[in-house]
Design a protein that fits this description.
Number of helices: 12
Structural class: alpha/beta
Low-confidence stretches: 128-132
Oligomer: single chain
Distance between the termini: 65 Å
Number of strands: 17
Length: 412
């Protein structure tokens, strides 16, 4: 048992046995270091409030006993991650997570906090010359299911990644070689050969061998070489690491053929589909129309879109003024702007795409925008009236505002 003089972290409990087995709930340690027991889930600041020597020793005894009989990980506890300590988090578009059949495409990636560890990198489709962002290509691979348990250190190079995936019958080197060979048949390859490659792995996890897949872990590995260099080194890698002849390949040659990797957690960018999934509802893609982008209209728009509900046209001719800040969804940044435009910009920024169209016009007196207003209201699946205006409600009921057989919701 190792205690820190500052008492600012958990006491470390390690086994000095060199043959201590790889079991579930071990802390991350470099290869060759003694095994460290993962005893607690709660932060140490909370644990300190009720920590005693007796409880500590009993926790260790319980950890060993439950590890021995296989009951340490409860049935209602989430599955363990497959690897420790990725370099950072990679945010990717939804279509990039489908499969390796996705076409070769250039992405630009922006590191939010530079290249520091644990930073977030955001990938988006782009084109050459989007400096200072860095250029990448990416491929997604579906791997066979594996049983959770021992958490491994994140692979640092292609050799370690191959060793990590070999037990589940997945040859990452062969898969990447085949994909690059297919890419080389197209004209785009030469235009992107100076980009670096992200290998995105979809790793299904099961609780027990042969059980149902409960969750899919997604990891990305950035190859620290250009796509052109990767193509050349993969051929050498195959020879140096698979050669079974009588003449040994020098370690220096094998090392030069290896490819360094950076490991990332992968998360999907926010989209209407993702918003609906996170809210546990079905995505709604039909068009809707909002009349009035005031305090109520802004809140309704924000709530509905954050659940993936609809694409919208918002109609309002009013401007956002300081007194509106008391109740409105908008912030001080938008003071002076048209409410419809401001709400549309805020919601479109939420998804990084246009889900809201703004019409800064009086719905009762649209003038030269009559055609646009008629198209928005007539094509809407439903019209949500948040104008708090009796004349507007009467105009809709009287048919002066063009609508199809849609449900009108008037909110005061």
């Amino acid at each position: 048992m190792l205690f820190r003089p500052a008492d600012d972290a958990y006491p470390d409990v390690i086994s000095l046995r060199t043959d201590f087995p790889d079991v579930i709930h071990l802390n991350a340690r470099p290869p060759g270091r003694p095994k460290s027991f993962c005893l607690y889930l709660e932060p140490y600041e909370e644990l300190q409030l009720h920590w005693t020597p007796h409880l500590f020793v009993e926790r260790i005894r319980s950890w060993l006993a439950k590890t021995a009989d296989g009951t340490l990980h409860p049935e209602d506890q989430g599955l363990e991650p497959l690897v420790f300590l990725p370099y950072g988090t990679l945010v990717v578009p939804r279509d990039l997570l489908s499969a390796k059949e996705a076409p070769l495409q250039l992405y630009v990636v922006r590191a939010v906090d530079g290249a520091e560890i644990r930073s977030v990198w955001i990938a988006a489709t782009g084109k050459s010359g989007d400096a200072p962002k860095r250029e990448f290509v990416a491929a997604c691979f579906d791997c066979p299911p594996q049983t959770h348990g021992v958490i491994r250190s994140a692979p640092d190079d292609l050799v370690q990644l191959q060793q990590f995936l070999t037990p589940i019958g997945f040859d990452i080197v062969a898969e990447v070689r085949a994909l690059v060979a297919e890419w080389k048949k197209g004209e785009l390859f030469r235009q992107v050969e100076s980009a670096k490659l992200f290998l995105i792995l979809r790793l299904p996890k099961q609780r027990v061998e042969g059980g149902d897949v409960e969750v899919i872990e997604r990891l990305a590995f950035l190859c620290d070489c250009t796509l052109k260099d990767l193509d050349e080194r993969l051929e050498t890698f195959q020879v140096t690491h698979d050669y079974k002849g009588t003449i040994a390949i020098p370690e220096s040659v094998a090392a030069r053929a290896n490819i360094t990797l950076l490991a990332f957690d992968v998360t999907e960018e926010f989209s209407p589909q993702r918003a609906a999934e996170l809210n546990g509802v079905a995505v709604e893609t039909r068009p809707f129309c909002l009349l009035g982008a005031g305090a109520i209209g802004g809140q309704i728009m924000d709530t509905l879109l954050r659940s993936g509900f609809g694409t919208w046209t918002v109609i309002d001719n009013d401007r956002f003024l300081p007194h509106n800040l008391a109740r409105h969804r908008l912030t001080g940044f938008f003071v002076g702007q048209r409410k419809a435009v401001a709400i549309a910009n805020l919601m479109n920024d939420l998804f990084g795409r246009e889900v809201v169209t703004a019409l800064s016009v009086d719905v009762l007196r649209p003038g030269d925008k009559r055609e646009a207003v008629d198209a928005a209201t007539e094509n809407a699946t439903a019209i949500c009236d948040c104008t708090a205006s009796v004349p507007v409600a009467r105009a809709i009921a009287a048919g002066e505002v063009k609508t199809r057989r849609a449900r009108q919701v008037t909110l005061w």
